[in-house]
């Protein structure tokens, strides 16, 4: 007996019926994390069975075969066979066939009336061959994906159905709220780009440096409050370095990569939920098909991919008893490149012809989130006062004091040459070193002074700060201390 559908699931089924009824044969259903994609898939299968149709449900990984079969069983769909190696449930006579795409690559396509492709953003040449086969020209192919933004997907699917967005599900209480901190800003200027994302080798070499690894762990110890945490690393060496560093400070930590077998993964999951493991470091293996009770996400893997970013964050957005929100510790600057997960979305499928994302939900020119200079909390665009610590960046007026004289501004700051800006950054680094501050402190002071990040900061070495730089920084620190005192006074009065 199928579970009762939620409003957004009912809306998705209605949209699907309308799409197929209008003559479409390749609809794509966008189902964000928390949508209840298992229930949605079971409803699609159940509806097809009631019409006397045979259904093939395709998954992109062998590890998802048994998980899908068990999910269908829980929903009362028992007439299920499997197409995968010598699986014990192999039975081509059953009305529902759960197939792995890896097996279909080596076999003839099954005789079926309806095909559902799960995680359809993970594209395989087999799908193209199947969907363009004249024998299946009129057979419906229904795609399911939380992130159907793969380049060229619109050449094969003809209708994008968006019944709800991540923001919709958070507002309705089906997904958890989240808070983001951006405690690190890795310099990615020398990392190459391959196929639209950072080169993994370059990225691994950069992110696996002892200082960056230690920063991930120390930040978690400071902010995460021992929450059950998934850490996304660049590669196996990086993930193991992170695991080792966590364990050195007494945090029991698991490790999963593509070579971790099913039984070991299940044992890690069990220990994670029992509290025996507080952190699990992984390499791109826990982005889909994972419904763990995760309350903190650590992004130690920079990416330009909206799909990967949304999938990683999605692992922490499921609701759970006692869960107030998901804490996201972004050591990759990804939020400052792509925005919040609720900002990302597209209204049409990419047909492969446009170099730019089609129908983006957010105006790309709109300001992106920024890290609070005081506490690293990621503030939404145009939010002046930090919601986390109360820090208020000083607002610039029409008059600025410079070197003892009053200078009227015409809407722009005093012009500084590139050499002057470079000198300022070097002296800010020097001030940070002399006063036990981090490089991030120097970056924040520079941005507050110039309204931008230092350009080509690589190669700039700390130098002894001038009186001008010392005075500037001390004035900002005094102003910050006064604002903090005001915030505390207001809180006490309230």
Write up what this structure looks like.
The chain folds into three domains: 7-165, P-loop containing nucleotide triphosphate hydrolases (Rossmann fold); 175-344 and 363-379, P-loop containing nucleotide triphosphate hydrolases (Rossmann fold, 3-Layer(aba) Sandwich); 399-493, no CATH class. Helices cover 35% and strands 15% of the residues. The chain is built from 15 helices and 19 strands.
How are the SSEs ordered, and which strands pair?
Blueprint: H1 7-21, E1 27-30, H2 37-50, E2 55-59, H3 64-74, E3 80-83, E4 96-100, H4 101-104, E5 114-117, H5 125-131, E6 141-145, E7 159-162, H6 166-171, E8 178-181, E9 193-194, E10 197-198, H7 200-207, H8 210-223, E11 229-232, H9 236-248, E12 253-256, H10 262-274, E13 279-282, E14 296-299, H11 306-314, E15 326-330, H12 334-338, E16 370-371, E17 378-379, E18 399-402, E19 405-408, H13 418-434, H14 439-450, H15 467-493
Parallel strand pairs: 1-6, 1-7, 2-4, 2-5, 3-4, 5-6, 8-15, 11-13, 11-14, 12-13, 14-15
Antiparallel strand pairs: 9-10, 16-17, 18-19
Helix pairs in contact: 8-9, 13-14
Q: How many distinct folded domains? A: 3
What is the number of beta strands? 19
Instruction: Supply the CATH architecture of the largest domain.
Output: 3-Layer(aba) Sandwich
What does the overall shape look like?
elongated
**CATH-defined topology of the largest domain:** Rossmann fold
Report the structural category.
alpha/beta
The top-level CATH class of the largest domain is Alpha Beta
Low-confidence stretches: 356-365, 396-413
Provide the β-strand percentage band. 5-15%
Cα-to-Cα separation, first versus last residue? 53 Å
Number of helices: 15
- Give the strand line-up of the largest sheet: 3-4-2-5-6-1-7
Share of helix among residues?
25-40%
The overall pLDDT average reads 87
Radius of gyration: 26 Å
- The CATH superfamily label of the largest domain reads P-loop containing nucleotide triphosphate hydrolases
Q: Mind describing the biggest β-sheet?
A: 7 strands, parallel
